[in-house]
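Justification of computing resources. Each target in the renewal requires a structure prediction run like the one illustrated here; the chain below, 220 residues long, is used simply to show the kind of job we budget for.
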Amino acid sequence: HYGKELLERRLDDARKVLGEFLDELKEEIREYGIKCKRIHESGPVHKVIAQVSRTTDVVVVARETNFEFETSHKPGHSLFELLEITSRMTLVVPDKPRAIKRIVVAHDLSPSCARVLYMLVHLNPFPGAEIIVVHADDEGMADKEDFQNISGYLQEHGFQAEVVVRNLRPDKAILEVADKRDADAIVMGAYDVGKVRRVLFGSTAQRILDRATIPLVFGT
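Resulting structure tokens:
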């Protein structure tokens, strides 16, 4: 009984501190002319965010986010779970955000990557940014016409764009181009769609998340 009572007091204290912080954050956001409201929900964090985000355009989370209170979850665990179920573009922000003027977009010519590019074009979260589309072609199978079509599509929508093909493993190609071009963000799909829909964490997306120091934008 005492342990339960102590936990409730600690939770109450945490809610009070968090509430004050969110109220301050809400006012700061409004100072930038952005509409803002605070929503308080209970339940598994990734499910709550995914549910709320159905009526939003973009989800923004910190790179090392740990939403769980006094649990064994590792930082970032909620992000992995969120990307499995969210239907919205997700912006993962590092410790030191930066102005986004040049974007690297990973594209493997799959329907998933086409959807991510469509979302990027029509949401246009970074107006005026230059777009560099990167394709990893370690087997020499790239079709120039496909990339001409992608570049043309972007230019028709008013974006300054180019396509770069690298004969490297996907994560290495993406990170190399991002580094050499001094990119401010990387945009890519979070899923590999095959017979079973699975998150790419553990492979390309996981390697990039582990190594990239700039904002990452994941689409589904």
